[in-house]
Amino acid sequence: MLRITGGKVYDPLHGIDGQIRDICIHDGKVVDSVDGGRTIDASGMVVFPGGVDVHTHVAGGSINFARAMTPEDHRRTVAFIRSQTTRSGLGGMAPTTFATGYLYAGMGWTTVNEAAVPILSAKHTHEELRDVPIVDKSCCVLMANNEILLDLLEQGEMERARHLVAWQIWAAKAYGVKAVNPGGVAAWKWGNDAKQMAETVPGYTSLTPAKIVTGLAQIIDELGLPHPIHLHCNNLGAPGNISTTLETMKSLDGRRAHMAHLQYHSYGGDDWSTMRSEAPAMAEYFNQQKNLTCDAGAVLFGDTVTITADGPWQHLLYKLTGRKWGNLDVENETGCGIVPYTYRPSNLVNAVQWAVGLELLLLIDDPWRIFLTTDHPNGACFWRYPEIIQLLMCRDFRQECVTQLSEKARERVHLPDIDREYSRFEIAIITSAGPAKALGMPNKGHLGAGADADVVVYDEDEDIARMFGHPRYVIKGGEIVIEEGDIRATPEGREFLVQPSFDREIEDFLRPLFEETYTMSFENYPVEMHRIERPEISECIDVST
Amino acid sequence: MSQVTLRLKQTPDVPLEAENITPDVLSDLPHDEIRALKLQLGKRTFRIDEFFEVEGERSDQVELHGDLKRVKWLGRGMTRGRLVVHGDTGMHLGALMKGGEIDVHGSAGDWVGAEMKGGLIHVRGDAGGQVGAAYRGATVGMKNGTILIDGCAGLETGMRMKKGTIVVGGVVKDFGGLQMKGGNIVMLSGAEIRTGAWMVRGTIISMLPLKLLPTFRYSCDYNPGFLTLFARQLNRLGVSLPVSAAAGVYQLFSGDCSVPGKGEILVWQPH
What are the helix and strand counts (H, E) for chain B? Predict the structure, then answer.
């Protein structure tokens, strides 16, 4: 039992905007009142619901490849030394598993969604998620380049495709479905890409990226997944790609979707030298589309490592940088590319990217539909979120940062003209309440009775980045995990799954195809339930209403 | 002149991590505090005086005695002073050093002067692999400074070095100058195979004929002007390089064409 008294509470779901409230916790849940137990005096402090990261890459084959590829970063980063409560680990651009949990919890984030999991490496992902302590987890399975599924979509066998998608979600023990560069990664295996929504995907006779997107979105709605299609559009990172993104949004035709890292999809211009921000046009269109949510995928200047299932883009990035490049080809399912990268304010393209992420956050008017992410580790590492909060909450600081951009870059962006400043209430929405709602997790992102007792208590501080980077207390599931800057407990988090219903006969269809083309046996393919640490199966919902 | 002397009492069973043994650290400390400095042995932490007999205090002139083959990181990141070792040393000698001088009367392990930025390291015996190299994953090795190895040097000598000089008296093992980006490697007794593989820039000078990769192209015979200056500088360090056109000529090979690179390998041909 625990009571947090006297703090200024920010609970957007219940409209509480800085009023003094007591938060009572019993048995891992927020309750109306408690008798006895410890009391934390939070007078003069700020109380938030635990942060929720809707899109991050923290476990599995790709991030592990990134770790292996960047030993030079491991040497210079802060090390976690083994202690009574913590395992050893390394922070940096691609933190190790245990350190990932400590770093997320250390800044008050208590739920994370691993955004890209191929079924073939789902076992590995879940093993790693198991080793990410404290935070609750979920993951999205990669679908839009799965060749067995693409064949069904091309043939128009939507019924069978739906059973296949449901089977694959359960096989991967996933929570949602991610589509990365629909058709493009399949084409990459032929040395091509899919950049136009209406053009046939190389290797197919009539299938287009638009058909893949709409087919998957429809199936996901029919299955009633709590989180809609998690969409990484075609043509990521390319100048002028806003047209592709808008076309994708239009092709959804009012269906639910979450647009991942929208920053990377909102550029104008014809080539690298003319690239400019199209954030206002994107925000204007997005504001009208109430069926959509998005996350920022903001960029911060500095070193990072980029990882994505978008193989063709990563090959291009490697050619541009001349640095290291890792490429994974995941049989019939997807691909993956890894390139260490440094974002520099002096680089025109990087400057535009930095501005676009912030512009989207500031120009999209409904904070319930845009969330704070950096597409960790692609735009920046997740532990730099407090820096973005500072940029959003403090116009003067933002303008000061704009001055480090070149004159040429400042002409290509709109950030200098934007005066909006986020309030704490809005920060609580984009970091917690909003993403929890988009993920369809009713017990996350708020502090009402029945919510999971994930609570963060910050000291009020003029320095916003310091305030949000160093919470005074972090409570996860009712347990105090961070106190006075120290990690006090490292409980294991839960994993959220969904179990959409499917016809078992889909296995009779799948098995011969699988045995013909895959390198593993069919029986070994699905992830067994016992590999999931503390699973929690979420109900599917009725989306038609 | 005052001096700090450390004598190893016994060779440790596993490598002892001694990055505290540098002139920078010892120069400001009284005797007691030097004795209390920490060393890491596996996962345990020890005091220096549990492994060394300590004499002297407050000096950047440091002398070490004993079989230090399992003592790593001596002189790590040092910026000044002089470290003299009578005996063999372990890995990472003078790694990341910025200035000062290290003189080893014995042999050294791998990674001598790795990613160093300045200063002088003289190993009178042999050195292990990766002399002046970049650590795994890093793009740039030594950025400046001088490393003299009187004996042989191991694999990947000067790997990804960008500037500075390495002189090896004995034979250099495979992959000398691997992915070199600049600087000079002087091979007084030639090298084994794959010298200069993937080199982009920089100069390798060999006194003996080399078995070169097919991606190096013979360009010409000549006596480069800069060698006169370079030889004069090396002469001060006790290394003599032939420069007289009367005595011979250098064959220039350029490569590595597979990268493609603009590196040069000069091979001395006496008349």
Answer: 3, 17
Q: What is the CATH number of the domain that holds A187?
A: 3.20.20.140
Distance, in Å, from the CA atom of B72 to the CA atom of B74, rounded to the nearest integer, reads 6
CB contact under 8 A, A73 and B139: no
Instruction: Report the candidate in A494, A497, A507, A495 with the shortest Cα–Cα distance to residue A540.
Output: A497
Q: What is the pLDDT of residues A129-167, one digit of tens each?
A: 999 999 999 999 999 999 999 999 999 999 999 999 999
Nearest to A93, CA basis, from A72, A117, A124, A123: A72
A73 touches chain B (CB under 8 A): yes
User: Of all helices (H) and strands (E), which one includes residue A4?
Assistant: strand A2-11
**Which residue carries 């709590």 as its tokens?**
A226
Q: Please state which of the ranges A324-333, A377-386, B21-30 shows the lowest mean pLDDT.
A: A324-333
Domain around A225: 47-442+451-496
Using DSSP, state whether A57 is helix, strand or coil: coil
Whether A40 is covered by a domain: the verdict is no
Distance (Å) from the C-alpha of residue A222 to the closest C-alpha of chain B?
47
List pLDDT tens digits, range A76-104: 888 898 888 899 999 999 999 999 999 99
Residue found by looking up tokens 């005052």 in the block: B2
Tell me if chain A has a CB within 8 Å of the CB of B271.
no
Can you read off the two tokens belonging to residue A318?
């490697």
What is the C-alpha separation between B48 and B58, in angstroms, rounded? Answer: 15
How far is the C-alpha of A425 from the C-alpha of A308, rounded, in Å? 32
8 Å CB contact between A64 and A124: yes
Q: With respect to residue A234, please indicate whether it lies within any of the assigned structural domains.
A: yes
Tell me the ipTM for this assembly.
Answer: 0.73
Specify whether the CB–CB gap between A497 and A139 falls below 8 A.
Answer: no
Q: What are A214-245's pLDDT values in tens digits? A: 999 999 999 999 999 999 999 999 999 999 99
Q: What share of chain A is helix, strand, coil (3-state, %, to 5)?
A: 40, 25, 40
| Tokens linked to A404 | 């480090």
Q: First vs last Cα of chain A: how many Å apart?
A: 39
Quick check: A293 and A369 in contact, CB under 8 A? yes
pLDDT (0 to 100) of residue B1: 60
What are the angstrom distances between the C-alpha of B12 and each of A162, A462, B42?
A: 65, 52, 10
Asked if A390 has any chain B CB less than 8 Å from its own CB, the reply is no
Residues of A in contact with B135 (CB under 8 A): 71-72, 75
Please check whether residue A545 lies inside any domain of the structure. no
pLDDT at A75: 87
Sign of the dihedral defined by the CA atoms of residues A160, A166, A172, A175, in that order: positive
Say how far apart CA B237 and CA B234 lie, in whole Å.
Answer: 5
d(CA B187, CA B268): 10
Q: Categorize the per-residue pLDDT at A545 as very low, low, confident or very high, splitting at 50, 70 and 90.
A: low
- Is any Cβ of chain A less than 8 angstroms from the Cβ of B45? no
* Residue A92, min C-alpha distance to chain B (Å): 14
Peptide bond just before B260 cis, omega within 30 deg: yes
pLDDT of residue A543: 85
- Note the pLDDT tens digit of each residue in A383-409: 999 999 999 999 999 999 999 999 999
Residue A2 lies in a domain: no
How far apart CA A190 and CA A203 sit, in angstroms, is 8
Q: What's the structural domain count of chain A? A: 1
Q: Which pLDDT value is given to residue A312?
A: 86
Task: List all residues 6 or more positions away from A411 whose beta carbon is below 8 Å from its beta carbon.
Answer: none
**DSSP assignments along A108-129, one per residue:** TEEEEEEEEE-GGGHHHHHHHH
Separation between Cα atoms, residue A296 and residue A430, nearest integer Å = 10
Q: What local confidence, expressed as pLDDT, does residue A309 receive?
A: 84
Q: For all residues of chain B together, what is the average pLDDT?
A: 95
